[in-house]
């Protein structure tokens, strides 16, 4: 599943680039004023994947969860030198390049290696850090594994889209390489023995090992180029003036050795703080925030999805002249297309694809995508409900002098709604669970918050158990409320 997500994101990135090139031919020429644009805007949006300590990770700061780490310090330094404010936007590592190309973020600082393949699509600054790779294993297997060649016949994991993932694919023999979008997921898979080892950069490996006594790190012995083991800041292609300005900051950071003197030690303090209290009760605010956003997405999507569904159902039932036939064809095509494509792709398209033209926030994009998806299914429920109403009801209403619109509004739709209420209830329950999909674009619903807690505490299973219970409470409560109204309708 994770590999499919990476493939879908890669395909979306290619589509976005094609649309950008053909739909906006002035983009490259206008890109050289990138520095002036940022300074005029007054805000520099940094994209990062905060599951990669000590580069970037979640920590509790003054009672609130925040993104911290070495890369965040670098981002703050860059923003300060540019004279603007820094805004951090979290998302999966796979999504960062797409987000940069579609203008959702202004730069990427996420331990990204400036490989030749990436340089074709984005501009990189000078490198600010050079590290290496290690493989994290369960401490009980320390005598079994020595390096990458020891995993023959086993399974090695790595974060999709990273250079270590590509190296594991190319430089191991008889080894199954499994990619996941999150380091937290990889560590969980390792501890549950779904993986035999996880390849990651040396500082990250040391961070996980130092905070989890059940883990150990071994040399990877990957043969890597200098660009594949270094980290740099990525900007949109053609951002020459902005890159040149930020290069001065990067050069100063390297000259004064700020990474080793200040940034890494500061990250280490947060790593130690994270493990002081790892109880799930300590993170109740994070879970409460997740419930809040889950309910917002669900309620809004149900409301707009129902409206869209009614309109589509009526359009599909339209008969008569050419215009009504055209509406019926469009509605049918829409329903079939939406039902025939994954919701995950639809969410990414609304957020990244439409982001080329309209800069929609992640939450808004998620609500729009889920509403559009739900509307297609609700339309079929309503169409079936309308068809289930006896034709005699319509004839009786018309004989009383009601118009077609009045008959549909006061006679047919109320009876259809009563017939399809269980199906609509199931759709509502499904949307509560499907809202988790929007976590891929950084919406802070339950799944997103559970990942934050896992990054904070280095505990893999406990946060998952908590959100399973929370989802059950939400769905069970909703089903009881829906059943109450269903009984009311039956006795009406």
TrEMBL record:
Its main location: membrane. It is found in: Cell membrane. It is a multi-pass membrane protein. Residues 1-30 form the signal peptide. InterPro entries: AA_ABC_transptr_permease_3TM, ArtM/GltK/GlnP/TcyL/YhdX-like, MetI-like, MetI-like_sf, Solute-binding_3/MltF_N. It comes from the Bacteria. The chain crosses the membrane at residues 295-318, 349-372, 461-482. This is ABC transporter substrate-binding protein/permease. Belongs to the binding-protein-dependent transport system permease family. HisMQ subfamily. The lineage of its organism: Bacteria, Bacillati, Bacillota, Bacilli, Lactobacillales. It comes from Lactiplantibacillus songbeiensis. The keyword Transmembrane helix applies. Residues 291-482 form the ABC transmembrane type-1 domain. Keywords: Amino-acid transport, Cell membrane, Membrane, Signal, Transmembrane, Transmembrane helix, Transport.
